Amino acid sequence: MAQNPNRPISPHLGVYKWGPHMAISIMHRATGFVLATAGMITLLWWIYAIASGPEAYASFQTYVVSAGAEATTLQTGTNWFFRLVALGVTWSFFQHFFSGIRHLLMDMGAGYELTTNKTWSLLVFIAAVTATGITALLVASRYMGN
Amino acid sequence: MGNGTGIGRVRGLGSAKHGGKHWIDQRLTAVGNLLLTSWLVISLLVLPNMEHETVAAWLAQPSVAVPMILMLISIFWHVRLGLQVLIEDYVHEDGNKFAVLTILNFYVLGAAAFGIFMVAKHAFTGAPA
Questions:
Q1: CA-to-CA distance for B111 and B59, rounded, in angstroms?
Q2: How far is the CA of B108 from the CAs of A37, A58, A135, B80, in angstroms?
Q3: Per-residue pLDDT for B61 more than 70?
Q4: What is the band of A146 on the pLDDT scale with cuts at 50, 70, 90?
Q5: What is the CATH number of the domain that holds A53?
Q6: Best to test chain B binding among A26, A40, A89, A132 (most B CBs inside 10 Å)
Q7: Lowest CB count within 10 Å: A59, A62, A102, B83, which one?
Q8: Structural domain includes residue A12
Q9: Could you give the CA distance from residue A27 to residue B82 in angstroms, rounded to a whole number?
């Protein structure tokens, strides 16, 4: 569609002061994209590995979880890469999860008052970081000790 | 009715009558995802370990394979609706938008079919020893 680049346009993102409600909105989109790609591809690889038998599962574990004491440099590298990805995906999951609950509540018409909206936004960030920390500690204490 | 601007072309035509479906489907799958991913996280935490023998026996049960398949359907449906909105907001050139939306649809259907097939095959043929 032909548009006059000099046409009058309404004020956009650049003119507003950043607040928690804006940060949480863009984070919902960004984390959704991370979950849809990195999250789901890793989940499908895991399901494929379970269904394909012990050897495929061992291969998944070697590259993603831990290659053990006789790890090659490549395997140690991919292990740490996937640990970072796992941390990112876990945080994305909880961020999108709690942010999604906020959206469902707002769809019912609640939480549009300025202070309430700001409080809920901050609570989502705190809940997501807390849940990610607890999950990381649980996984580390159960599976990274040996 | 004008034909110069976008609003001029659609003015007077009325609504397409399916404007609400995308929105309500996104909420429906969102609630499905809340329930089913909560189930997955709790199930994984309750498993005694993550050895192949354990997870293979776990995934082969109907009470696990069925919610897992439902979760894949709900998630990939939600992915399609959600990423469609991202693409429509950020990819402005018509040709590119069409191409990226096509890739999104192929990815979502392909990935969902792959995942569902793997879970079904595993559940139907039993856990390999």
A1: 18
A2: 10, 27, 28, 6
A3: yes
A4: very low
A5: 1.20.1300.10
A6: A40
A7: A59
A8: no
A9: 13
**What is the set of domains in chain B, with CATH numbers?**
22-125 (1.20.1300.10)
State which residue of chain A sits closest to B28, comparing Cα positions: A104
A129 vs A79, more confident: A129
Please enumerate in sequence order all residues whose Cβ is within 8 A of that of A96, keeping only pairs 6 or more positions apart, or say none. Answer: A28, A31, A32, A35
Interfacial residues of B (vs A; Cβ cutoff 8 Å): 6, 27, 30-31, 33-34, 37, 45, 50, 52-53, 55-56, 59, 68, 75-76, 79, 82-83, 86, 111, 114-115, 118-119, 121-122, 128
Domain count along chain A:
1
Place B129 in a pLDDT band, splitting at 50, 70 and 90. very low
Within a domain: A10: no
- Assess if residue A44 is contained within a domain: yes
Please give the single-letter amino acid code of residue A55: E
What integer pLDDT is reported at residue B43 of this predicted model? 95
pLDDT of residue B3: 65
Domain range holding A30? 21-143
Residue range A20-64, pLDDT digits in tens? 989 999 999 999 999 999 999 999 999 999 999 999 999 998 888
Comparing CB atoms, the residue among B30, B79, B121 nearest residue A104 is B30
Six-digit token pair at B117? 């097939």
